[in-house]
Design brief:
The protein is built from five helices and six strands. It has about 160 residues and is of the alpha/beta class. The protein folds into two domains: about 30 residues, no CATH class; about 110 residues, Transcription Regulator spoIIAA. The strands form two sheets. A three-stranded antiparallel β-sheet has the order 1-2-3, with no helix packed on it.
Length: about 160
């Protein structure tokens, strides 16, 4: 059976809606360090969670030990964010090797099942540095931005 774009998108939307659904009493079954929904607000570590956040999609790249990495820059940027009161950071946890000319390189993965270990280590380093600063990560695994691969690249691969 060939999966078309409409069915893929509907399936992704259904999966997202299911994953985001709030189940009463389920928030306390895991670690309190995770942010959970409480009515119209958020909770973390048993207390209301309010945050100032930003996007740092490139953190895994500069946290990498590869030629493109710059861990000094990573720590400087995180220190500056912490000084500015930023505690919540959106990170790329994946990025696909897009066929577009100006897409981000290297990617977390290409059409094969292999992942770029250097970027995975860069993400680990970033998360460890954020933990030292008591920062919270929102890690996205895909998106619809073609420059970073995204869902359109998965469709291209099929």
């Amino acid at each position: 059976m060939m999966i078309d774009r409409r069915h893929l998108l509907m399936g992704a939307a259904a999966l997202t809606a299911t994953a985001c659904a709030s189940v009463p009493g389920s928030a306390s079954t895991g670690s309190d360090a995770f942010v959970s929904v409480d009515g119209m607000g958020f909770r973390r570590n048993g207390a209301p969670y309010h945050y100032v956040g930003t996007n740092m999609w490139y953190a895994a790249w500069i946290g990498s030990d590869g030629a493109f990495g710059d861990r000094g820059r990573l720590t400087r940027e995180l220190d500056r964010m912490q000084a500015a009161g930023i505690k919540n950071i959106r990170l790329a946890g994946s990025g696909e090797d897009s066929p577009l000319t100006n897409s981000v390189k290297p990617a977390f993965r290409d059409h094969s099942a292999e992942y770029n270990e250097s970027l995975l280590k860069g993400l680990d380093v970033t998360l460890a540095e954020m933990a030292r600063r008591d920062m919270t990560a929102v890690v996205y695994l895909t998106n619809f931005w073609e420059w970073s691969g995204g869902m359109m690249t998965y469709l291209y691969w099929t």
